[in-house]
Specification:
By secondary structure, the protein is α/β, with parallel strands linked by helices. It has 22 helices and 13 strands. The longest helix is centred in the first third of the chain and has 32 residues. The protein is elongated, with a radius of gyration of 43 Å.
Amino acid sequence: MPSPTPVPPRDRADTPWRSEGAPPTPPPKKKGLPGGWRGLILAALIVYLVANLVLSFFNEGDEPTISYTEFSKQVAEGNVSKIYSKGDAIQGELKAARPLPDGDKGDYTKFVTQRPAFADDELWANLTKQNVTVTASPVVVQRSFLSNLLISLAPMLLLVLLWVVIARRMGSGMGGMGALGRKAPPKPVELETGAERTTFEDVAGIDEVEGELNDVVDFLKNPQEYRKMGARMPGGVLLSGPPGTGKTLLARAVAGEAGVPFFSASASEFIEMIVGVGASRVRELFTEARKVAPAIIFIDEIDTIGRARGGSSAMGGHDEREQTLNQILTEMDGFSGSEGVIVLAATNRADVLDPALTRPGRFDRMVVVSPPDRSGREAILRIHTRDIPLAEGVNLAQVARTTPGMTGADLANLANEAALLAVKRQQTQVTQSDLSDALEKVQLGAERPLVMPEEERRRTAHHESGHALLGMLQPGADPVRKITIVPRGRALGVTLSTPDADRYAYTEEYLRGRIIGALGGMAAEQVVYDVITTGAENDLEQVTNIVRGMVGRWGMSERIGRLTAIPSDGQSPYGLSAAPATLDAVDHEMRRIVDECYLEACRLLREHRPQLDALAEALLANETLDEAAAYAAAGIVRMTKAHGTD
């Protein structure tokens, strides 16, 4: 059952876990620059020298040095506006620019020259005659030593800044590894603030599982009581069950009930292409959890990294998945009772986990989370409709009765679909009709606006009537709830049959009746039209799965005997789990049972041909028949419990 509260965010992209309820942790200490200060100082010195060399060239070009002869010429021509002299050194500025002497390209206005000591040219008289101003301050103000120092340091500061940025990027990248391979210190995780914790009040339909997990909650709340009796805290609890049964919600509820921090992560988020990153992330996660112990770590889909080692998919002892698994094993084995950290894990495939992971001391308990029963489904529906306005007369118990096998996630989706339908129909409340239509959409698929030829439409009506009629005639079969020839999903028509009560074990007679009912569509086309169409594809898939289990797994064949010849994991239906002769016998028995059921289906439909035609005509007229209308059209009174069904 999906969680009613939002999932906390993560602190950074390479931190694959989320947390809630954990107290703030002190910020990590700042680390020094990788590579050391020696390399940084050497690089800065080189940049400083190069910058000074470049600036010296620029400074020389700002004020050209001219010959004293050229200076005397410009004074004689009256082109000098002002000069400044300090000893024999003369600075000056021209009134009009002149080309640079000695063939250099460009013009100059400011200049520097040197008056020879032997000169006797009446310079002062000439300057006075030409009205040249002799200033008391330099004509060209040179940059101070401090300015030159700042300008030369600018490239060095830029280099230091780039050095720091690159070092930080390399330190945060590569899965938390530093630029030179050193591991970055753990960062505090992002904390959830202001959100309500999930408790067992948000969980329904799996009361027996809550009872097993209550021991963990009580241990986290009162650890001293258990230590007095010499009991140790369980190292881990493995939640196993089909998807959507509420394993993640249960883990959060345990943490919420105990009032301890909760760290959640998906096992696939630990795996990276670079070997060793997953193991380092596992170490960091467990380190963070120990800091705030007692705490709970939840690893979802642990079969991603927890599969049995030594298979063909592994690449030896250095495989990234195996290293991550080894690190988890080490961390869990290192727990002592005083650390107060419990690992909860969820999986849909507990049978493929490594034995070292499921042994006592690591995962001490395996809790099976099964789909809810009728009362559990009703309780789940009440939780998921708390925020949905329901109309008067809505009967959630009836909805729960017609949804056997649905998980908490399925029921949450059902309630949401009903609310969406009510919005589309511009209603202010969700009615029983909305829930019924939403259930049809979830179970049968959405309606398709498909226009079929009359001949194909009539054949589809007989096909669905064959399914329904055989379901009505078979003793102990599931009651027919609805028949429709409106195309839904990939099917041109659908016959819905569901039991009145949950079933947990199936007899051979019931399974044969399921096969006969599934073959009813093909048999009806054979009896009425003497043809076989592609409309029975899904029916044949169901038949194959049922008969394969009967012969290869459940011992319902005298020839095969009471043994398992086909694995139940579905990965290799015809794998080498038995001798080739046994597998050939399984194939022969499967064909025999299906052929017998098909002949029985054709015989029943020929004997009840008038009822088949009447049901088909009613379908052609109405397109959809509910339970009462379907039984009335076929002229069959629904059997009672005394006759073998509800």
